[in-house]
């Protein structure tokens, strides 16, 4: 996984930093694992805009990803590493010994031809999915379940990972990418390794058009709005806008929005650092 800079032949090329895509082995997705994906343009079922700055973009198809990894004991061979337009990470096509094919989120360093397994008694190698009760302490993991059999919910984006710290009773203690430490049942599954495409955060599109290709419309700075449109709008000249807050008036920086009655609070040992 590498990045490339471009010669400043135009103003848009000057700051452009893009992936070389040298880790991708094919540009043709597996047809049986594609599904249609509807674009809403930020509108609800009445046609009214409920989310701003959404619309346009290149047509895409959804790649059906196996987040459960529930084919325990059946070995699978990595056939391809592919680009997925719906997520920041790369995806890998697995061909199981019984003939079934599935997509998974590709861990960093996964090679074509590697054999992967999931379930009990699996060795802690990159790409293998294990129960948290069997993962060695200090192991880097991703695609972590919150409830047994639910499917992966945490550490799924490009370059993200968590670390298994210790075990207490029926819980495993996990340190998350945010710095938060929380308890998860040992009967939940996780995949060994870090998510692929770790340089994604360093990419620079270089021009506004690339945002439009991705379905993002231009965003207006709240300070430049009128008072009727935003709490930070209005004022003479270049006003600061006062205290940063959302369009609905909620404070934006440093204000805790998490509910004190959230039932998952009892599983969180240490909140993320501010």
Task: Give a structural overview.
There is one protein chain. This protein has 274 residues and is mostly beta strands. The chain has a single domain, classed as OB fold (Dihydrolipoamide Acetyltransferase, E2P) (Beta Barrel), CATH 2.40.50.140. The protein has 1 helix and 17 strands. The longest helix has 6 residues. The chain is globular. The model has no long low-confidence stretch (mean pLDDT 95).
What labels describe this entry?
single chain, OB fold (Dihydrolipoamide Acetyltransferase, E2P), 7-stranded antiparallel β-sheet, 4-stranded antiparallel β-sheet, 1 helix, 274 residues, mainly beta
Which SSEs are present, and which pair or pack?
Layout: E1 3-5, E2 17-19, E3 34-36, E4 61-63, E5 76-82, E6 91-96, E7 101-105, E8 115-116, E9 129-131, E10 140-142, E11 144-145, E12 152-154, E13 162-168, E14 171-175, E15 181-185, E16 189-192, H1 208-213, E17 268-270
Antiparallel strand pairs: 1-2, 3-4, 5-6, 5-8, 6-7, 9-16, 10-13, 10-16, 11-12, 13-14, 14-15, 15-17
């Amino acid at each position: 996984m590498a990045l490339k800079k471009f010669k400043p032949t135009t103003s848009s090329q000057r700051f452009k930093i893009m992936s070389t895509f040298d880790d991708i082995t094919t540009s043709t997705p597996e047809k049986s694992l594609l599904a249609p994906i509807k674009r809403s343009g930020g509108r609800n079922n009445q046609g009214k805009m409920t989310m701003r700055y959404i619309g346009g973009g290149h047509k895409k198809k959804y790649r059906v990803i196996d987040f459960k990894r529930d084919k325990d004991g059946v070995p699978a061979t990595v056939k391809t590493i592919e680009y997925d337009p719906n997520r920041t990470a790369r995806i890998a096509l697995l061909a199981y010994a019984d003939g079934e094919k599935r997509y998974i989120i590709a861990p960093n360093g996964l090679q074509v031809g590697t054999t992967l397994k999931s379930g009990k008694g699996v060795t802690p190698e990159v790409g293998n999915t294990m129960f948290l009760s069997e993962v060695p302490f200090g192991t880097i993991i991703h695609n972590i379940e919150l409830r047994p059999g639910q499917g992966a919910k945490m550490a799924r984006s490009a370059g993200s990972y968590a670390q298994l710290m210790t075990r207490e009773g029926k819980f495993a203690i996990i340190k998350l990418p945010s710095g938060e430490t929380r308890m998860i049942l040992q009967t939940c599954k996780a995949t060994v390794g870090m998510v692929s495409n770790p340089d994604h955060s360093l990419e620079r599109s270089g021009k506004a058009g690339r945002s439009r290709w991705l379905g993002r419309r231009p965003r207006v700075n709240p300070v430049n709005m009128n008072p009727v449109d935003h709490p930070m709008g209005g004022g003479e000249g270049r006003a600061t806008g006062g205290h940063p807050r959302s369009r609905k008036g909620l404070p934006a920086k440093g204000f805790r929005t998490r509910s004190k009655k959230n039932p998952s609070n009892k599983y969180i040992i240490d909140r993320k650092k501010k």
